[in-house]
Amino acid sequence: MMKKQLIGLAAAGAMLLALAGCASDSGTDGGNASGPKPIEELVVGFAQVGAESGWRTANTKDIQAAFEDAGIELKFSDAQQKQENQIKAIRSYIQQGVDYIAFSPVVETGWDAVLNEAKAAGIPVVLTDRAVDSKDTSLYVSFLGSDFIEEGKKAGQWVLDEYADATEPVNIVQLEGTTGAAPAIDRAEGFADVIAENENLKVIASQTGDFTRAGGKQVMEAMLKANPDIDLVYAHNDDMGLGAIEAIEAAGLVPGQDIKIVTVDAVHDGMQALADGKINFIVECSPLLGKQLVDIITTLNDGGTVEPRIITEETTFTQEQAIEALPDRQY
Q1: What's the pLDDT tens digit per position in 243-258?
Q2: pLDDT tens for residues 1-41?
């Protein structure tokens, strides 16, 4: 009889453990099921792409300032635009046992292995600015950033409107971002989709400038030699557009007039060039993601839920709008 009672107690205990396990698994995705951790004890690891542009520099400063203001420890690494460096940093954060990991992927692919390691360690991951190309969306809690396809469409729409009356080919060259990067892929796609409505709009050359001013200048110099009759430059970011301006001026041409320029970002130097008439149109891509990222982290820490896709609000700028906006521009 005593033996049966012991077996019964063991079974009951096992059931209670199973129920407790179910309860612990029922917390929100990425949330802290055991209750909020004091803010001053939170540690977040952030793996940045690099410092390839004015946009990225502004993005880094904003994120660091937002976490400092919130009183959350931020471990920061600069990958210098190399995926292997970001993966190394993420693995280091996992080993250190940080509470959350956030990063802006250099390229879209090749992340499943390290993100599975973070998942196995129970560390929620937030993507900022750029997405990853993975079928397993459980590898990250949320993606905070711009709609890059929409940015490309906005750029394309300006070109479509500007050349609405064109009856002859309009020769367009495209300065692409880093090969394989989400903004480069999506901005090209959105732009192509829109300008396809006018068969006279032709992209005659497209090459990566790696989102850098030096890269934009170098690529534009080569394009001008190969294609003397360029009507418009579409640059995936301001820095490459600014590099293109240098190359256009060195060739004895007037940027904004002889060759029109459309860019994406709206950082200070780009906006100044727009105000000066050297760039014709800029699609905004805000780097100020710090506060939103802090909000995501604190919401998850409190056991709350966040949207899997959070899109930043952005606008576009003409020359007149740039002149008006510049005095109060934060970046």
Answers
A1: 999 999 999 999 999 9
A2: 433 343 343 333 433 333 333 333 333 355 555 678 999 99
Whole-number Å distance between alpha carbons of 169 and 179? 27
Nearest to 158 by CA among 248, 274, 259, 283: 283
DSSP assignment letter at 326: G
Residue type, 318: T
Q: Report the alpha-carbon distance of residue 273 to residue 276 in Å, rounded.
A: 5
- For the chain, what is the radius of gyration of the CA atoms? 24
Residue of 124, 156, 131, 134 lying closest to 146 (CA atoms): 131
Report the run of H or E that residue 195 belongs to, with start and end: helix 182-195
| Residue 134, both tokens | 């993975």
Residues whose CB falls within 8 Å of the CB of residue 29, separated by 6 or more in sequence, listed in order: 124, 138, 141, 305
Quote the pTM value.
0.84
| CB distance 100 to 78 below 8 Å | no
In the chain, which ranges are E strands? Answer: 43-48, 73-78, 100-103, 125-128, 142-145, 170-176, 201-208, 232-235, 260-265, 281-284, 309-311, 316-317
